[in-house]
Amino acid sequence: MIQPVHPNHDSEPPTPGAHRRIPLADATATEALGGQLAAGLRPGLVIYLQGDLGAGKTTMARGMLRALGHAGKVKSPTYTLIEPYALSRLDLYHFDFYRFEFPEEYLEAGLDEYFSGHGVCLVEWPDRAAPHVPPPDLVIQLDPAGDEREATLDARTEAGRSCLTTLPPLPAPPAANS
């Protein structure tokens, strides 16, 4: 049985050295990054997916789900609040709080039970449910960068940092001419 990474989601200080910026040429690259991160997903992990509308948050979730063996449709939970996925290795819950008008809607909907440590929680628009939604282990910020996108991954806990270890090493910077 896979054990939760941390059962109570108490806030931990940011983990030094657990910050990466990754250029993404297109939606295919965004989905591929999600697929690479899937190998590090463990029950209890809370991941915030942040970025403007259309930034690629659901595309990132699709990459994770495909790598975990989900062959069905992956849609944004904008209208349903949550899309649950029971996978062979773990349960994954994809949330979207964009439509919340008040943070208390999170409590009224009873969504806190999903954050009990039994599954991975991907959360879009977490600020709309603050301060009620548990703090993240990993924040993935998707931003435009010219004609491309850039993903900034920021591990906030040791569990988040462990997830980042599944990514290939960044290429070495070009040598400076002396």
Q: How is this structure best described in words?
A:
With 178 residues, this protein is an alpha/beta fold. It has a single domain (22-164), classed as P-loop containing nucleotide triphosphate hydrolases (Rossmann fold, 3-Layer(aba) Sandwich), CATH 3.40.50.300. It is built from four helices and seven strands, in the order E-H-E-H-E-E-H-E-E-E-H. Strand 4 (91-96), helix 3 and strand 5 form a beta-alpha-beta unit. The model is unreliable at 1-17 (pLDDT under 50).
Write a brief caption for the model:
By secondary structure, the protein is of the alpha/beta class. 20% of the residues lie in helices and 25% in strands. It has helices at 27-38, 57-67, 104-108, 158-164; strands at residues 19-24, 46-50, 82-86, 91-96, 119-124, 138-145, 148-155.
Keywords:
178 residues; alpha/beta; Rossmann fold; 4 helices; globular; disordered N terminus
DSSP helical segment count: 4
Radius of gyration, rounded? 16 Å
Q: Which percent range fits the helix content?
A: 10-25%
Class, according to the CATH hierarchy? Alpha Beta
CATH architecture verdict: 3-Layer(aba) Sandwich
Strand order of the largest sheet: 1-7-6-2-5-4-3
The count of domains is 1
Strand runs, count: 7
Uncertain ranges: 1-17
